[in-house]
Amino acid sequence: MSQRVDAAAAYVLHSRPYRETSLLVDLLTLEHGKVSVVARGARKPGSRLRSTLQPFQSLQVGWQGRTDLKTLRMAEPVESLLMLQGKALLCGLYLNELLQRLLRPFDSHPRLFVYFRYALNELRLGQDLEGALRTFERQLLEQLGFALDTRTLQPGLSYRLDPERGLIVCNRADAYPAEHLQAIAEDHYDDPAVRRSAKRLMRNRLTPLLGDRPLRSRELFLKRKGVQDDRA
Q: What's the pTM value of the predicted model, to 2 decimals?
């Protein structure tokens, strides 16, 4: 069935060359989830689309088509281009890559779109990059159906994460204290120990979903920091 959308809120997640003058673009949209489009002529010299279809640019877009790969009809910037630099830029690319890799086409997550916008604003401000990443990662997992049930946590106990059974009481040194898990569930990251637990927990939960192919954004972090993985 043919689909035509005239005005959708969107961000560019990724683009790559297509044929001689076009781009294949993955979009995150408010109402339609991840949508892949062909932007015809976007690579031509002087093309307005070339400067419009940039990551972190709030857009209004339109498309049409009968298959999963749509044809972009229009793209207009809604606000000034959000400029990210240095570590904030790498964090933004990391968020884009998570969404591109983990979202299914046309699987709508309006709440996730709002949190993505929140995360980008936090990255722009640069005051708490780590908190912004952990909040978004938790929301992403929740929207994908991988929320952790913290309702039965007992203060003073520690837990390990079992892929099938969830959180299980455990006395190992690398277990997660209940207080840390509850703080993570509420997006409270003031305590450095909670931040460390959150970083380890989110990585452990995301890695199986991402599969064996490494994240390009993580490789950029490693290149920037040498041998140390300094992702916030």
A: 0.90
